[in-house]
Amino acid sequence: MEKRKKKVLVKEKSKVLEMPPVWEELSVVGQSAIRVEAIDKVKGTLKFEGDHAYPDALIGKVLRSPYPHALIKRIDVEKARTLPGVAAVMTANDVPGRNGIGAVIPDQPVICGEKVRFVGDGVALVAAETEEIAIQALDLIEVEYEPLPPVFTVMEALNPDAPKIHEKGNLLSTVRIRKGDAEKGFKEADLVLEKTYSVPFLEHMYIEPDVTIAIPHEGWITVKGPMQAPFTTRKNIAPVLGLPTNKVQCVQTPIGGGFGGKEDSPIDIGARAALLAWKTGRPVRMEYDREEITLTTAKRHPMVITCKIGAKKDGTFVAFEGTIYDEQGAYASLGPVVAPAGGVHVHACIMLAGPYVIPNVKVDGYLAYTNHPYGGAMRGFGAPQVNFAHESLVDELAERLGMDPYELRMKNCVELGSETATGQVLDQSVGMKDAMEKAREAFRWRDLWKSVLSPSALRNADRQKGVGMAIGWYRTSIGTGFDGAGVNLHLQDDGSVLVYQGLTEMGQGLSTVLSQITAETLGVSLEDVRMIAPDTDVAPESGPTVGSRSTTLMGNAIIQAAEMIKRPLLESASELLGIPAERLVAKNRIIFDREDPGQSVELKEAAKRSFITGRRMMGQGWYTPPKTSFNIETGQGSPYFVYTYSAQMAEVEVDLKTGEVDVLKVVAAFDIGKAINPILVQGQVEGGVMMGLGYALMEELVLKDGVIQNLSFQDYIIPTAMDAPEIVPVFVEHPNIHGPFGAKGIGEMPNIPAAPAITNAIANAIGARIYDLPAHPERVYEAFRSRCEKKG
Amino acid sequence: MAKEKIVIEVNGEKRVLDVDPDCLLVDLLREDLGLTGTKIGCREGECGACSVILNGKIVASCLVPAIKADGGKVTTIEGLGKNGELDPLQKAFVEQGAVQCGFCTPAMLLSARHLLDQNPQPSLAEIKTGISGVLCRCTGYVKIIQAIQSIAKGN
After folding, report:
1. A258: chain B residues, CB-CB within 8 Å
2. Min CA distance, B124 vs chain A (Å)?
3. Is the peptide bond before A544 cis (omega within 30 degrees of 0)?
4. What is the mean pLDDT of residues A714-739?
5. Is the pLDDT of residue A395 over 80?
6. Is the pLDDT of residue A99 over 50?
7. Torsion of CA A49, A50, A54, A58, to 10 degrees
C-alpha cells in the first residue's frame, strides 16, 4: 500500500504564484453600492412566485408515505380519479420518461412505484380544479403498504445484514485521505487526543415556501419558481417527461431564501408539477406548505465524526486521524462523489483536518443511505459539520497543552506555500494568519482570554462569561469536472447594457455584484446595467448557484464578455476622438485619453457609433476555473483552486442554573480576496454567523422512528432578533489571482466557524465541553453539572 | 356559507367587501385586494411574514379572520410610504443594507414602523423585542436593527 501510494502521489509542487497586477483605480467595484432590487423589495412590489395568481391553473398535490420503509403492494386511485373536479391522478406507471430525479444520481422516484424510503416519499400525484378538491382526492387514494424494517443510522446501514434501502446496497460513497504515515506520526506525538462529535439534521427554514407553476405548450413546457439552480432543475425535468433538454424552459423567480435548499427542492416540486401539466395539458400550480417542506426537502447531513490529533509539547501538530459516518438519508441528492472532488461527502472529508499543516493525515469517510429524509446542500456543504469537530478538538488540545488556543492555531495554521492534508500547495491568496490577527485585535482576544480564564470565577456566579474561537476555510466553487459559467452581454446604442446569465439572486446580492463588475469592466455606470432574471431559454448554461462560486466564476465570464464589446467600442471612440484606441480608457460613462484625460467622449456616443458602423454590440463569456484534481484512492490532489479563510471569536454568557446561553458578541474576520461590495459582504457575514449561532445553540430536526417531530417554526427554532449578538465583520484582502478583481467566495464561509467559536466559548465559561450539537440548555446544563460533580 | 359584508379601511382607503366567514385577513389582502406585499411563510402565526398593522397593533394576518377586521384600519406595506415617497424606514433599510432576499422585509418594516409609532426612541433591547415576531433567515438582523436605530435617533 505504501509503495503504491508513493507512485500515484505525484504532487504538483507548483511554486507560489506571483501576486496579481494592481488593479487600475476602480470606480464601481469596491463600492458599497445599493442593492439593485432593494427599492422593489422595501415597497413590497417585487413579485415572488407565490404572489402571482393563475386563475386557470390546476392545483397539484402529492400523496405522501406515512412509512419510513415499505413496499407498495397495491394502489387504487379510481375513486380519486372520478371525483368531480379532478383532472388527473398519477402513479408511477404514468411517468412518461425516467422515473427518477436527483441533483447527482437520479435515484429518487418522482412517484414511488415499488417501495417508499422515507416518511414523506411521494406515492401519487393529483391535479384538481381547487385545492380543496385536490386534498379530497388524496384522501380517496387507497394504498396498501407492507412495512419493511427501517434503517435509521449509518452504523446500522453499514451492517452487512441490514435491510437494503436501494438495490445496490446502503453504502453510497467512501473516501480515503492518506498523507504521510499517521500511525508513525502519533508515535512521535507527546500528546494525543481523540474525541467523537455528532451533529444533527438541519432544515434550511427559508421563509419563502417552495412553489412552482408548470405551463405546457405544444411540444415543450415552461416551469417557473424560486430555483437556485435552474439548469439542474431543467436537466431533471426533461428526462422525466421524456423530452430533450431544449424543450424544457426553467425560469427563476425571486428567491425568498435558499441556503442550498432550493437547489434540490425545485427539482422535486418542479418535476411533479411538470408531470401533471404534461398529462393534463393545463398549467399546474404546486405549493408545499411549511410542514411539507420540512418533511420532504433536503437537509444538512447529520454526521458522527471521530477525530484524533497528536501534537508535540510545544503544540506542533504531527498527526491527525478522522472517521466520518455521514448520513445520506433516503436519496443520493448531492451527497455522493462527483469527480474529482464534488459532492458533500468528499468535501467534508477534505475539510476534516482543517486549515492546518499536519504532516501525517488519515481520513476515512462513509456515506450511507438510511430511511430518513435526504441530506443535500446547506450553506457550507459538509464543512460546518467537520469544522465543529476539528475546532472543538483543537480547542481541547490547547487546554490540555496549557496553551492559548489562539497561539496553538497560529502555530499550526496554513500560510502561503503550505501543504494541506490532500497534498495541495496553497500557492496564492492565503490570508488565514492575517484574518486571525485582525480578529484578535478587533476582539481584544488577549485581554478577554486572560480575564475569563480565572477558575475561581466559575463557582461563585449564576452567570458566567466565556470566550472562544474557531478558524476555518472554504473552497470557491465545486471541484467537479463541469464548472462553467456563461454570459451574454448586449450593449445598446445608448450605452446601456443587458446581462443574460443563469446564476441566481437569492438575497446574497449577486445581481448587484455582477452589475458592478459589468459596469466597471465596460466603463458604464451601475444604473446602465440591467440583469435579466435567469431563464434557461435565454441565458447560457451557468451551472448552479452554489459553492460560493457565483461572484468569482460569473464575474470572470462577464469580464471576458465585456472585453469582446469594449474593443470595438474603443475603436469607435478612437474614430470620434482621433486618438489611438490603445490609449483610451472607459470609466463612468466617459471614454478618455489616458495621457490627456481632457480629451474625451461620452460612452453613449461611442456606443451609437459602434451601432451605426456595424461593430460588435454583443459579448460572450464562458469561464471555467483552473483544473482541479483528487485521487479517490489516496485522497491526494488539489481539489479546489482557491479557498476563503475565516477566524471567528465569540463571547458568551451562560446561565449556570438553566444552561441557557446568550451570545454577546462575535468578531468574524475573513480573507475574501476582494470585497466587490463591502456592505453586501457584511450582510453575508452577519447572516451566516447568525445561522451558525442557530446551529450551535438551537437547531435540530428531531426524528423518532423516522418521523420528524418538529415540522414547523413553532418547534424548529431558528434565531430571532432577540438572539442577535453584536457581530463585527472584519476583512483582509489577499487577492485571488483567478478571481475578478481578486475576489473569491464568501456566501458560505461565515456560517462555518461560528458554531465551534460559540461552543468553545461555552466550554471556556463552564469548564466543560460540548460534543454534540446543538448546545441547547439541557445539554449545557448537564455538561456543567457533571463537570462540577467530577471536580467535587 | 353565506358571505358577510365588511367595511375596512385599507391603507387609508375605505373598502366594502363580501367575505366568507372563514376567510383570513391575509387571504383577503392578497387575493381580494391584490396586496401581495404581505407574504405567507407558514400560515401558523410563527414566521411573521404576514404581519400587518391592524387598529394600531401589529398582527399576524394569517391568524386573523377577515370579519374580525370589520370596521377596522389596516396598514400593509403598500400603505407605508406617503404621497409616493418612501417611509424613512424604507429608505434606511435600502441604504443600510437591511434587505437581503426581501421576503420578510415588508413585515419587518411594518413591525419597525409600529414600534417607532409606539416608542419613537426605543432602546436596543426594545428594538429587538419589537421586531422579534418576524423571522429573517438572511440578515442576522444586524443591519435591520441598525436601520431602525438610525431612524429612531432622528426622532
Report:
1. 101
2. 10
3. no
4. 97
5. yes
6. yes
7. 110
pLDDT digits (tens, 9 = 90+) for A317-336: 999 999 999 999 999 999 99
> Taking all residues of chain A, what is their mean pLDDT, rounded to a whole number?
95
Cα(A585)–Cα(A583) distance, rounded to whole angstroms? 7
CA–CA separation, A758 and A763 (whole Å):
9
Task: Indicate the class that CATH gives domain A484-623.
Answer: alpha beta
Residue A2 pLDDT exceeds 50: no
Task: Select from A376, A378, A363, A467 the least CA-distant residue to A423.
Answer: A363
Q: How far apart are CA A429 and CA A435, in angstroms?
A: 12
Contact (CB<8Å) B43/A255: no
* Dihedral Cα A355, A263, A39, A521, nearest 10 deg: 60
Distance CA A695, CA A300 (A): 11
Domain boundaries, chain B: 4-79, 88-154
Question: With contacts defined as CB-CB under 8 Å, which chain A residues touch B32?
Answer: none
Domain ranges of chain A: 49-148+210-296, 303-479+629-791, 484-623
Is B141 close to A688, i.e. CB distance below 8 A?
no
Residue of A nearest to B124 (CA): A722
The span from the CA of A625 to the CA of A502, in Å, is 17
Residues 20-49 of B with CB under 8 A from A: 30-31, 35-44, 46-47, 49
Helix axis angle, B105-118 to B124-131, nearest 10°: 130
**Right CATH number for B4-79 from 3.10.20.30, 3.40.50.1980, 3.30.1330.10, 3.20.20.70?**
3.10.20.30
Helices assigned H by DSSP within A281-374: 290-296, 344-351
Question: Distance (Å, rounded) from C-alpha A409 to C-alpha A355?
Answer: 9
For chain B, the distance separating the N- and C-terminal CA atoms, rounded to the nearest angstrom, is 49
Nearest to A118 by CA among A105, A129, A107, A104: A107
pLDDT tier at A530, thresholds 50, 70, 90: very high
Give the pLDDT confidence of A150-192 residue by residue, as tens digits: 999 999 999 999 999 999 999 999 999 999 999 999 999 999 9
Q: Which CATH class, in words, describes the domain spanning A303-479+629-791?
A: alpha beta
- The residue in chain B having the minimum alpha-carbon distance to the alpha carbon of residue A41 is B102
For residue A686, the distance in angstroms to the closest alpha carbon of chain B comes to 5
**Which of A51, A683, A713 lies nearest to residue B100, judging by beta carbons?**
A683
Backbone φ, ψ for residue A414 (5° rounding): -75, 155
CATH class for the region spanning B88-154: mainly alpha
How many A-B residue pairs are in contact by the CB < 8 A criterion? Answer: 171
3-state secondary structure string, A429-479?
CCCHHHHHHHHHHHHCHHHHHHHHHCCHHHHCCCEEEEEEEEEEEEECCCC
Looking at this protein, which amino acid is placed at residue A88?
A
Q: Chain A contacts of B132, Cβ < 8 Å?
A: 720-722
| CATH topology classification for A49-148+210-296 | Aldehyde Oxidoreductase; domain 3 (3.90.1170)
Q: Specify the DSSP element, H or E, that contains A587.
A: strand A584-587
pLDDT attached to residue A229 = 97
Percent of chain A's residues with pLDDT above 90? 93
Asked, as a colleague might, if the bond just before A774 is cis with ω within 30 of 0, I would say yes
pLDDT tens for A365-388 read: 999 999 999 999 999 999 999 999
pLDDT score, position A25: 85
- Which among B134, B137, B140 is the nearest to A205, CB-wise? B137
Q: Does B99 touch chain A (CB under 8 A)?
A: yes
* Topology alike, domains A49-148+210-296 and A303-479+629-791: no
Cβ–Cβ gap B97/A35 under 8 Å = yes
Strand pairing partners for B90? Answer: none
From chain A, the residues in CB contact with B33 under 8 A are: none
